[in-house]
Amino acid sequence: MSGAARDRRVSEAISERRDRVNEAIERELPVEVPERLYEASRYLLDAGGKRLRPAMLLLAGEALADVEPGSTDYRAFPDAAGAPVDLMAAAVSVEVVHLFTLIHDDIMDEDDLRRGVPAVHRAYDTETAILAGDTLYSKAFEIMLRTGAPDDRSVRALEALATTCTEICEGQALDISFEHRESVAVDEYLSMIERKTAVLYGVASSLPAILLDADEATCRSLHQFGIDVGRAFQIQDDVLDLVMSEEAIGKRRGSDLIEGKQTLITVHAREAGVDVDAIFETVASADVSDAEIDDAVSRLDDAGSIDYARETAREYVESGKAELEALPENAARSLLADVADYLIERDH
């Protein structure tokens, strides 16, 4: 299959599941009283998004059950014994957690844009945005309880999600602490993005195994698949922040540099002898020019740091795809592998 044909296949698979997840969000997270709170909670959900994490969850379920992709009702998905489980509720729960983290990240980073629209704290106010994020956090657990899985599996799924939320907060704390340090090692950075970003991909990929009663080895393999491709996803985000336009990524190009954030690119560049602190100082202004951003990116590119990040992301994807051997060989497993490739080949 050509690269273009594969990309169309992945795009169609993600789009089909995104549409069904969006329908479920309307059902699982209605706008209630107080309306302003729930409108703010739904604001980024309604603004769009690829729904990558829930799409991966649904595909993992299809691969486990060895069913034709898209052929089964996600709200009554057959477990190992043929009993129905609502995998769509789990998919929505994971997406809701993701949106909670975005709202709080934007507040902490004082970002103005998200997904091409004003961030929640800009569209509403900071107090409402904090409450919206908190509401999404608690709603995620309410929604996860609606899968209809047996109690023991429901408890395991809730524990996995709760542990993931704790790890995300740990990762964010590490990310903030890195901004106040002179240097960060590559291993430290990779450990941080595992917590901040990759663990949500890990739980998204492994929740179907938990809820459908797969064996422990399969649960571990799917979790590791999500961790590896989640790391790759974050590294690709680091790259896109530097090489793509504001229109493509939905926020200011070079925003990581402007905010003085450590990324795999700047960590590698520092180790290669680049004066990264001088770069941070040069661009540390909201009115920094595009030419100054271009110059900073060129210095990082000349050090080989952007290529290093791209190659590291590719290695993680290949490692993650190897974990899929725990699944039956079928069309859904093949799609999961293609989605992993998409995560580091996307341009937004």
Features:
mainly alpha, 348 residues, two-stranded antiparallel sheet, globular, Farnesyl Diphosphate Synthase
Question: How does this structure look, described?
Answer:
With 348 residues, the protein is mainly alpha-helical. It has a single domain, classed as Farnesyl Diphosphate Synthase, CATH 1.10.600. The chain has 16 helices and four strands. It has helices at 3-28, 35-46, 52-65, 87-109, 120-123, 126-144, 151-178, 186-211, 216-243, 246-249, 255-258, 264-271, 276-283, 290-302, 305-323, 331-345; strands at residues 77-78, 84-85, 113-114, 117-118. A hairpin with a 2-residue loop joins strand 3 (113-114) and strand 4 (117-118). It is globular and about 60 Å long. The mean pLDDT is 93.
